[in-house]
Amino acid sequence: MTANHNPEEDLRRREQELKEREMSVRLRELEAEVYGKSETSHTEAREVEVVTDVPPTKSSFKRTLRKIVNVGKFLAVVVAVVVAVRIAMWLAMALMIGSIAYISYELFLKGDRSSR
């Protein structure tokens, strides 16, 4: 009796698995219709997973290199702006000190020399 019982259970289990697979395929088709995605089967999804595991290609390397170059350019501009602001501050301070010194000279020392 166990010999007859096992094939029947095996058959029922396989039928249940087949129904589950059909339901999941149908569900994917309905989702594709609702969301407007192209229909992808289970094997295509597996292929996509395998493709993502391959090492980076030349185009992805170029994209990464381009991003690094852009970041480098941005940092160069930031450093240039900071240096320009510091130089401008130094020049403004030198100009203010020079003007104060010139005004002081005109007020205090120039008048003393002309009276001699």
Distance between the termini: 138 Å
Binned, the helix content reads over 70%
Q: Which regions are unreliable across 5 or more consecutive residues at pLDDT < 50?
A: none
Q: Please state the structural category.
A: mainly alpha
Mean pLDDT: 82
> Percent of residues in beta strands?
under 5%
What would you report as the Rg, rounded to the nearest angstrom? 40 Å
Topology order in helix (H) and strand (E) letters: HHH
Architecture blueprint of SSEs:
Blueprint: H1 2-35, H2 42-52, H3 58-114
Kindly describe this structure:
This protein is an all-alpha fold and 116 residues long. The chain folds into 2 domains: 1-54; 56-116. Helix content is 88%, strand content 0%. The chain is built from 3 helices and no strands. It has helices spanning 2-35, 42-52, 58-114. The model has no long low-confidence stretch (mean pLDDT 82).
Task: Give keywords.
mainly alpha, rod-shaped
Give a short overview.
This protein has 3 helices and no strands. By secondary structure, the protein is mainly alpha-helical.
